[in-house]
Amino acid sequence: HEKFCKSISRIMNRLSHLCKQLDSEQEERAIRASNVSSYTAASDDDVVIVSAIRTAIGKAKRGSFKDTHPTQLLAPVLKYVVQDLPSASLVDDICVGTVLAPGSSRAAECRMASFLAGIPQNASVRTVNRQCSSGLQAIADIASSIKAGYIDVGIAAGLESMSVNAFGKGGKNMVITDDVKQNMDALNCLLPMGITSENVATKYKISRADQDAFSAQSHRRAAEATFGVDKRFSHEILPIATHWKDEKTGALKKITVDKDDGIRGATTAAGLGKLRTVFKKTGSTTAGNASQLSDGAAAVLMMKRSRARALGLKVLGRFRAFAVSGVPPEIMGVGPAYAIPKVCRQIGVSPATDVDLFEINEAFASQAKYCVDTLGLDMDIVNVNGGAIAFGHPLGCTGCRMAVTLLKEMERRGAKRGVVSMCIGTGMGAAGVFERI
Fold it and tell me: Pick the catalytic residue: 110, 132, 397, 400?
């Protein structure tokens, strides 16, 4: 009888193992059918995002947020992402990507914004600046702190007011030493971004017509995401009540901003082709095929999957991998073409076949078009809701904004893996992988 029981037990164990294996194989087939490979099962130690939101993006100096203080942009998104926590005191640290403002001033403003959001004193705050990737860098930094066990719950955010802090203004006091003048790489770090766009277009033969067509598509897609039947952007934009000054009359108006300023759905390649070039008379970069100077903020709430489960919070996705790659400063826009393969190698996947969606920042049509073509990507899965050419590029906010947009679109489509990437001034590219599991 004892031997019989042991035999039955062994048989049951084998059947159980076989069932698990069959379930695993079935799951793997389903995943591969969704164009995703090298999929790692969910783990309690995954660093996940449980809330994600952004403001609309306003045109700098003349748009909806031109009279809105940076703290008034950041505080609402911070408040939003903690609203489902049992207590905001659970937040250990906040990291805000930001670029143009003087470091100590912006750090103080971010601390102020956390208090305005109702986050108590125990939550620490800091800023990070890796130029255009700062918002994504903030996500990577918070993820690293959670993985290392330094914190349990953190907020990654991005903030930029190019109305308040003008682009290039801080560089006026920069001292250029003789040794920098004698080092071409160092000197090229000072090139205007528009010149780097022209360099990419010339070096890689990206035509003006291709740039204008790329830009028109960005506007069409953004218009559909904003004004289309399902109004997709309404699910990621937090309406902001603010004030706006009429420069002609001086009147101060109360407004609620819930749509991006810069989108022009009727834009055509032919229309863009009539615009004059900005940086070189014989060049191809115009105001119409470059990103807009903008104001905006975004934030995501992050923790381990085990903590999210304990708190009863829905997981939007996990942050799987992050990479930064250096490239020549004079063609800095090619950065994503190097950073995306690098981050994909970390998890053993191919950019061309194993990623469902891409958000690649459109600093300029020249560089975005080059990166898409070089990586062999299908535009049907790249910037499906438009990009920075249509609605703007608030530098420190952009990386976090792109993550919010990606996660919302992945959820809408049932996509499993997405990549956010952007070029970085002075010659770098950054990329992050997000997965819905």
Answer: 132
189 is a catalytic site residue? no
The catalytically annotated residue of 95, 344, 371, 423 is 423
Q: Give the per-residue pLDDT at 28.
A: 39
Nearest-CA neighbor of 400 among 319, 346, 333, 338?
Answer: 319
Taking 50 as the pLDDT cut, the residues of the chain under it are: 17-18, 20-22, 24-36
pLDDT at position 20 is 47
Q: Are strands 47-54 and 317-326 parallel, antiparallel or unpaired?
A: antiparallel
Q: Of the listed 110, 393, 397, 400, which one is catalytic?
A: 393
The count of other CB atoms within 10 Å of the CB of residue 189 is 14
Query: What's this model's pTM, rounded to 2 decimal places?
Result: 0.90
In the residue annotation, 132 being an active-site residue is answered as: yes
Where are the alpha helices (H) located in 34-174, listed in sequence order?
70-81, 103-116, 134-148
Cα–Cα distance list, 212 to 272, 343, 392 (Å) = 6, 30, 16
pLDDT in the model for residue 24: 45
344 counts as catalytic: no
